[in-house]
Design brief:
alpha/beta, Rossmann fold, six-stranded parallel sheet, five-stranded parallel sheet, 21 helices, 15 strands, 43% helix, globular
């Protein structure tokens, strides 16, 4: 049988036996080597039907494990918090952690069907702490080569069918990611907290609290005044000095859970090792600091947009909900209400008393359709402007499951962007501007364009999206998210393209996207989109304002991108339902 050397990540580890390489996935191939004849293992979730099945399987494990973990944390901390409290606080980490582990686990296990004998080499990671400070820290490291090398190594050891060696030269040190703490940051936090505390003197008794809102400060202040409250800025930053991992304390995390598979056994073996310190060693320290910040002590209603990454917000919200406050979650971007499956949407609908959508409904009963001021009505655009192609960025490694490209599929997305640009005719390429994502965490976006489409103008501006789309004649949306809704709400001429196999739609949204296809707004591939633009560039406004096109846009807008000058009316009605 042929022997091969397994490479799991981009981390450089010596191939001691000089075997030919097998890359576990596209994420493990360096950009400079990706055009070589590399042997790359097929990614298990390229079968998107299997992805959906696995998502449901992981959700079932999550729902079984959450109450047991909640009981264990109550016992360890000698408290009596409800399951909903822990679902709000630790649920996002647990859900994403299980999804990350399951992906890495299945990637390794799928190698058992490979027609060769495999060997690999582990770096030395004895000094690497796998327990991050908080949920956001876990999400950060889950996209790093260091973390994934370690996780793959642990899975390989556990499964036992791949021969492995230990490197004597490569060390993965604790905190190998760049540290963010510095004196400038400390000063900024101090100044920010000072401003917040001064302003919040007048809002400390507010009964309706807006926190981590998707509303602008101006819009939020106007809404608060309409609710007879002082405007507020609940953006204090609490700094917690992370404790060292206490292995003896973590051994107390005894989960009375009988694993039903080898994966569950592996997950249970490593949960105590990887759970963030916020929820164990630093629980009481964090809880005390956050409950003592200058935010209202007894709110009746909490309105929040983002309740996944930020543990500070989750600590405060979970405590107030435990004490009787009602929780309203406002939609904070696109893809919601449209995709076939997604952890964030499911979690947010589950924990909220009321969910404010931008126009959609589904089978859930706690959704209220409202107009959002982020979505602008009828903006002007430049008829003399160019083409503006907007790119997204996703990690090379999967980190949570929803209807988007995952892991190696992100590489295909990046390739499609260059194909589109190069498929425009030469005159249109001269007026094309490509907006790179400000967080380059994928497959080397900028390098790819510079090498494969060197004449294309690139920008990584962080300007408000409306400033750019209104200066151009045509906007190109390359992913199903917030920009799509912003453009349609504002009636900006827009072409969209993406791989429908990677952006699965639910039964409610599919008819509306099918209608967008019929009028040539949405395309399934980059070449089709470019051909349409090449053919119709001189008459883009005629096409966009044609009655058939506008009727389809209005139907879509009324169901997914509601906007109104009188948006506050719907918000006030929704909030008063729970007061």
């Amino acid at each position: 049988m042929v022997k091969k050397n397994l490479i799991t990540t981009r981390l450089k580890v010596e191939n001691y036996n000089k075997l030919s390489d097998l890359f576990l996935g596209r994420w493990a191939v360096d950009y400079k080597n990706e055009y070589l004849d590399n042997d790359i293992h097929n990614y298990h979730w390229d079968d998107r039907e299997q992805l959906h099945k696995d998502y449901l399987k992981i959700q079932k494990i999550y729902e079984s494990l959450l109450p047991i973990l909640s009981d264990s944390l109550n016992r360890i901390h000698n408290i009596k918090k409800s399951e909903k409290y822990w679902r709000i606080l630790i649920g996002p980490w647990l859900g994403i952690w299980l999804q990350v582990l399951f992906d890495r686990w299945t990637s390794i296990v799928s190698l058992q069907d490979h027609d060769c004998s495999l060997e690999t080499t582990f770096a030395n990671y004895d000094n690497y702490d796998l327990s991050p400070t908080n949920t956001e820290g876990f999400i950060d490291i889950s996209s790093s080569d260091e973390f994934n090398h370690i996780l793959y190594s642990k899975i390989i050891k556990f499964t036992g069918f791949i021969k492995y060696h230990h490197s004597e030269d490569i060390f993965i040190k604790e905190n190998s990611l760049p540290k963010k703490n510095n004196y400038i940051r400390i000063f900024k936090i101090f100044f920010k907290n000072l401003i917040c505390n001064l302003i919040n003197i007048f809002s400390i008794n507010n009964k309706i609290v807006f926190i981590d809102s998707y509303l602008s400060f101006k819009d939020k202040s106007l809404l608060e005044l309409s609710l007879n409250q002082f405007p507020s800025i609940y953006k204090n930053v609490v700094t917690i000095k992370s404790s060292k991992k206490n292995k003896d304390f973590r051994k107390m995390l005894d989960l009375s859970y009988e694993p039903k598979s080898k994966f569950e056994e592996f997950a249970l073996n490593h949960l105590a090792e990887m759970i963030p310190k916020n929820f164990l060693e630093d629980y009481f320290k964090t809880h005390k600091k956050i409950q003592n910040i200058s935010w209202p002590k007894s709110p009746k209603v909490i309105v929040v947009a983002v309740l996944i990454h930020n543990d500070q917000t989750k600590f405060w919200v979970s405590e107030k909900v435990e004490n009787g406050a009602k929780l309203i979650i406002e939609q904070h971007g696109g893809n919601y209400g449209m995709s076939e499956f997604g952890f964030n949407e499911s979690h947010e609908l589950n924990i909220s008393d009321l969910y404010l959508s931008w126009g959609w409904q589904n089978d859930k009963g706690n959704i209220k359709r409202i107009a959002h001021p982020k979505l602008k009505n009828e903006l002007n655009f430049s008829t003399n402007g160019g083409i503006y192609q907007i790119l997204m960025s996703l990690p090379r490694y999967s980190y949570r499951i929803y209807s988007v490209p995952i892991a190696s599929q992100v590489y295909q997305y990046e390739q499609d962007q260059v194909i589109f640009s190069n498929s425009l005719n030469k005159d249109l390429q001269k007026i094309l501007k490509v907006r790179l994502h400000s967080n380059p965490r994928g497959y080397d976006q900028a390098k790819r364009f510079k090498d494969l489409a060197p004449s294309i103008c690139l920008t990584n501006t962080k300007k408000n999206i409306y400033e750019d789309i209104t200066q151009n004649r045509l906007t190109i949306c390359t992913y199903n998210a917030t920009t799509v809704l912003e453009c349609i709400a504002a009636n900006i001429p827009t072409i969209m393209f993406w791989n429908p196999n990677h952006w699965e739609l639910n039964k409610f949204s599919k008819p509306y996207f099918d209608a967008l296809k019929k009028v040539n707004i949405l395309h399934d591939d980059p070449v089709s989109a470019a051909k349409f633009i090449n053919k119709n560039w001189d008459n883009i406004e005629d096409w966009w304002y044609k009655k058939e096109t506008q009727d389809v846009l209005m139907q879509f807008k009324n169901n997914y991108a509601l906007s109104s000058k009188n948006w506050k009316i719907g918000w006030i009605e929704a909030i008063k339902e729970l007061c």
